[in-house]
């Protein structure tokens, strides 16, 4: 199968590329390298079934590319991913995440793609009242990033109605693993890992009881692959473990993996930070046969091993 991955040089996208190549597919990645890097694709670039196009998804060249390539599935991961940056510059965020999604959908249609798989975010739930957040919970965006992701979802549904192109949206919780930059939504794992390996101080905001739902990148890739099949058309699924992990527990696990003392500093909670988050993975299990397999203790060890071996 021929597949297109937007944001293919990023953290999640590059793992998806590797998995698709390992599965024997032909993979084309489009990435402007604004936050991703060629280093993430070092293995993939050695394959003759892989091509990287250094391109902004809003560039009309994307339409020419898909018209020629005719990819069967488009995995749309390219995005402005920082909530804080979206608050500081909502127009930039909308340009990449809304205009960029519209451009990707036009290109997918032009290339007669069967399906688009989209990476949305738990940020679209705002401040949920039920945790783990059920799959059919109401959305309530509280940041430009959340609003742009939700707008992108609306575009997917609208393009399906207008042009018949299928889609599945995956609502990702806090993804972590090798190759993650410290700026992402689950950047805390890579921030703590880097600091604890280097022996520099770590800080927890608040009293350490804030919770998040950490899901390992290989599990997310498995969800994306499943969503690229024939199941889950026109639906959105949470991809998370349903398990809440406190900041304090996360720190202990990473300190253990890094062989470092478990002694974080504490600072005032940051304004707007959610006290708790986890999402219900059961609908993704029923709809896509997906389940998270890598527990957090194993995942942070794999992440620390990668960080140790990474050239600095
Ligand atoms: N990491 C998480 O915890 C998480 C959680 C929820 C949702 N997501 C979503 O998953 C997707 C992948 O996230 P990630 O963590 O791998 O982030 P990432 O920043 O590593 O990947 C995004 C990629 O998109 C590329 N990109 C950005 N703007 C582009 C443009 N205009 N044209 C072409 N390429 C462009 C970047 O260079 C980067 O390689 C994003 O859509 C993100 O919103 C991630």
From TrEMBL:
- Name this polypeptide is given: UDP-glucose 4-epimerase
User: What positions belong to coiled-coil segments?
Assistant: none
What segment(s) does the record annotate as region Disordered? 260-280
Q: Which residues are in the NAD-dependent epimerase/dehydratase domain? A: 4-240
Q: Which SUPFAM superfamilies match?
A: NAD(P)-binding Rossmann-fold domains
Q: Which Pfam families match?
A: Epimerase
InterPro entries recorded: Epimerase_deHydtase (IPR001509), Lipid_A_modif_metabolic_enz (IPR050177), NAD(P)-bd_dom_sf (IPR036291)
Q: What is the lineage of its organism?
A: Bacteria, Bacillati, Actinomycetota, Actinomycetes, Streptosporangiales
